[in-house]
Amino acid sequence: MFGKDQPVILHLLDIAPMIESLKGVVMEIEDTASPLVHGVVATTDLQEAFTNINYAILVGAMPRKEGMERKDLLKANCGIFKVQGKALNDYANKDVKVLVVGNPANTNALIAALSAPGLPKENFSCLTRLDHNRAKSQISKRLNINVNQVHNVIIWGNHSKTQYPDVNHAYISGSATGGEKSQVRGAVADDAWLQGEFITTVQNRGGAIIAARKLSSAASAAQAIVDHMRDWVKGTPEGEIVSMGVWSDGSYGVAKDLIYSFPVTCQDGKYTIVQGLDVDAFSREKLELTEKELQEEKEEASAFLH
Ligand code: LMR
Questions:
Q1: Looking at the structure, do residues 26 and 140 belong to the same domain, yes or no?
Q2: What is the value of pTM for the model shown?
Q3: Nearest CA to ligand 1 atom 4
Q4: What is the predicted pLDDT for the residue at 176?
Q5: Which residues are named in the active-site annotation (predicted)?
């Protein structure tokens, strides 16, 4: 995640009933014989887990089961992320970078950020890189090109079925285009697909995986976590836009103080929301729909926050 020469000390936190399973995870980590693992702290104690950490990947949430919607999860998860936000506030390094993965990820990240008044809101993010990667992958499949040739798709909003995968600023590069950049919309040349099936496939992909596996995504989520943290810490390639759920500063008319997925670039350990992209009427409607859902989640969550 941070490069082949960056050692890490892993702090693994789980709840008491899972301690035996956690010991198994530690055994497996040892058995990877990874030279980059310079230590493992496995604990059920919040203080021990969060003390002096630089990066926090919060994957532990009440998992969604088949047929369950995110809102059903809010109450249970509010409890978890309030406690973890406070622990980050009290014990972690002040520059800790936090990535919330457990669903509902945006609102869980919001709860954690609001529960950590001593930390900058820019330290908190949620995972929409999985959706970003899914969107790239769908385009690459459709055009029969390598996924690396697809650039600058954008995921707006919530990591849920209201998210908006947007290809209006996306382009393809490389041998597929004779080395030239070519806009995805023109290359696909099927607006009905781009504004219909493509969007719904990406929006529903998490649910489709749960229906097929009877378990939530795992490997693809892990890859997205690596991509998200690596880019945040080490920077995005010149000209490359990625998607991150971050604290809204009102960009693109989105309400402030929500964790909303925006197009971002990263440099020197900081993300910047890409400004000035055109948002057409179709997109505007989608941006507002997913914003509305996040506002509703925030309202529901606030009942459990105090
Ligand atoms: C995913 O997108 O694969 C997961 O967030 C789905 C889920 O609800 O666990």
A1: no
A2: 0.95
A3: 206
A4: 55
A5: 159 (proton acceptor)
